[in-house]
Design goal:
The protein has 257 residues and is an alpha/beta fold. The chain is 46% helix and 14% strand. Helix 3 (64-78) packs parallel to helix 4 and helix 6 (188-201) packs across helix 7 (205-213). The structure holds nicotinamide-adenine-dinucleotide.
């Protein structure tokens, strides 16, 4: 019987750790005693990782070779990877007919191809150990759409397909794969898009938060990053061994209607 309050220390690779959800996940894992390789293209993530005793690897994960190099670094340092958290992401808001092709490709590379390549690269280590956890930070926009976000929403919907397929393949190997689907979390990714959305909808920034971001929310507030990292910790635990192929909403009640 496993003790969820005293989990076995694990080795985790977390992407997108300079701020927001990824930074909170690194902190949470370190508090639990896990070893962590934090991966980000932003050099500022190094200081944040090292401040909590995590290792850091700089990589632009829109580049497939960099994804493979990040996993190779984790294997070199720690000898295995038990937990992968695919979190790195960006947003670009523009109407479909003006959406830049280069931005589309960057978003698909970073938010769909990178999680695939990272999962593929950690798989042998998890399979050999008969234990693994892949946690994909998707979005409420993996389930429903909003205007102006074609690339992001396509990548996130694709991430759910990847989650389900990998879950079916990993089940017999002790590897679980799940997705978390948050609505708006108070992070730089959201703070930066308030101005973009204001332009798109012809509103001021306060109106964007109240009338666009929280329009469909039953709980009228933004989510805190720690509310997402708490669920990551559960899905990464032994206690969640029977949970796989599922999508977990933290969406303020958005999709209940
Ligand atoms: P954030 O901007 O605070 O963090 C994103 C991180 O990804 C940053 O550390 C950034 O440096 C990193 N990153 C971006 N491009 C990269 C690249 N090419 N290579 C390596 N690292 C890169 O944003 P966040 O809100 O914490 O977002 C984290 C994840 O959560 C994203 O996948 C996002 O889509 C998802 N999400 C966020 C929200 C929200 O409302 N904030 C809601 C649902 C889902």
């Amino acid at each position: 019987m496993t003790n969820p309050t005293n989990p076995a220390p694990r080795v985790a690779l977390v992407t997108g750790t300079a701020s927001g959800i990824g930074e909170a996940v690194v902190r949470q894992f370190r508090e639990m005693g896990h070893q962590v390789l934090a991966v980000d293209y932003n050099e500022q993530a190094r200081e944040k990782a090292e401040a909590v005793g995590a290792a850091f690897f700089q990589a632009d994960l829109a580049d497939g070779e960099a994804c493979k190099a990040a996993v190779a670094e984790a294997l070199k340092r720690f000898g295995r990877v038990d937990i992968l958290v695919n979190n790195a992401g960006i947003q670009h808001v523009a109407p479909l007919e003006e959406f830049p092709e280069a931005k589309w490709r960057q978003i698909i590379d970073l938010m769909l191809t990178a999680p695939f390549l990272l999962t593929q690269a950690v798989w042998p280590s998890m399979r050999q150990n008969g234990w693994g956890r892949v946690i994909n930070i998707a979005s409420v926009h993996a389930q429903i759409a909003s205007p102006g976000k074609s690339a992001y929403i396509s990548a996130k919907h694709g991430m759910i397909g990847l989650t389900k397929t990998a879950a079916l393949e990993g089940g017999a190997q002790g590897i679980t794969v799940n997705a978390i689907c948050p609505a708006y979390v108070k992070t730089p990714l959201v703070e930066n898009q308030i101005a973009d959305q204001a332009r798109l909808h012809g509103m001021d920034e306060q109106q964007v938060v109240e009338q666009v971001m929280l329009k469909n929310a039953a709980v009228k507030r933004l989510i805190q990053p720690e509310e997402v990292s708490g669920l990551v910790a559960y899905l990464a635990s032994d206690a969640a061994g029977a949970v796989t192929g599922s999508s977990w909403n933290i969406d303020l009640g958005w999709t209940a209607q």
